[in-house]
Predict the 3D structure of the following.
Amino acid sequence: MNMKICLMPGDGIGPEIVTQAVKVLEKVAAKFGHTVETESALIGGAAIDAVGNPLPEATVAACKAADAVLLGAVGGPKWDTIDPAIRPEKGLLGIRKALGLFSNLRPAVLFPELAAAAYLRPDIIGQGLDIMVVRELTGGAYFGEPRGETVVNGERAAFNTMIYSESEIERIVRVACEIARKRGKKLCSVDKANVLDVSRLWREVAIRTAAEYPDVELSHMYVDNAAMQLIRDPSQFDVIVTENLFGDILSDEASIITGSIGMLPSASMGSGGPALFEPIHGSAPDIAGRDIANPLATILSVSMMLRFAFGLEAEAESIDAAVKSVLAQGFRTGDIFVGEGKKVGCSEMGALVLGAI
Ligand code: IPM
Ligand code: MG
């Protein structure tokens, strides 16, 4: 197979971690007899600096022409005071919309090797954590119209619109049901149906859609309670499906309780067309350029890409196994180092994974 990959290193630690992940991709491809063609495209702050636009036309075209997209991270304090219309984040939101990437899969998994780095008590973590957050990614308050600033009673006021159509809800619930079916068969739909009209429609459509998946057990939870339950008893969850803004918040929470935010990949997919893979963590400007970032989330994003975009299960598995073996040997980047094992930097961690493939 020939894989055409568009690389968007982006900002902060993005370029360092993407460099390591690409080496891993090339090694796995060679081992299994595939070829990789890569093209790099600008996004975020790097694109603002180069061409004054966080999402240049050429980037959208390069992504559309690729089989899959690998993204590092976008944003940083350098662009915090910039005109909000061209903030780095606009690049990320724009590419999600342009590629129709409505479903965002964010696994929150506790690596047994890293149990000591988890933030919860051992009795709460129990046998480990394995939650999949399915976040709607192209709707809700992030994109809803109308939005903007106005004047109300002589003072400034600002507003956004959290809006979902039935078809938008249905397609993301369907994705979540399909995923639940291949895992623990439990789906928790998170909403705020006790207050929001949009959530009441969400719940109604979720019930209707999930009814087509009788093998999947559907439950509902208000988002405030879900935030609490994730800390109190995270192992009650298998798959969570929720709208864009709630999913943004809950997926950060779910990933940090594992203690492994530097370890977690994500996939953003549409219906056909190239999907986008990226680490869950951000651009970490404070440690950028110092070769100390953790490249494993990006390396595992390559594994997710092989699995979800190309259906290459054995290839994906070889990356997962290599990462596990490097962790089992005690190698740790700073973010997952809790006193034991050997601390390594970004390129050294990349080289260790390469060596284990
Ligand atoms: C994420 C990020 C983005 C989001 C930002 C950078 C626009 O927080 O991918 O979760 O809010 O979706
Ligand atoms: Mg977020």
Summary: The radius of gyration is 20 Å. The chain has two domains: 1-102+272-357, 119-257.
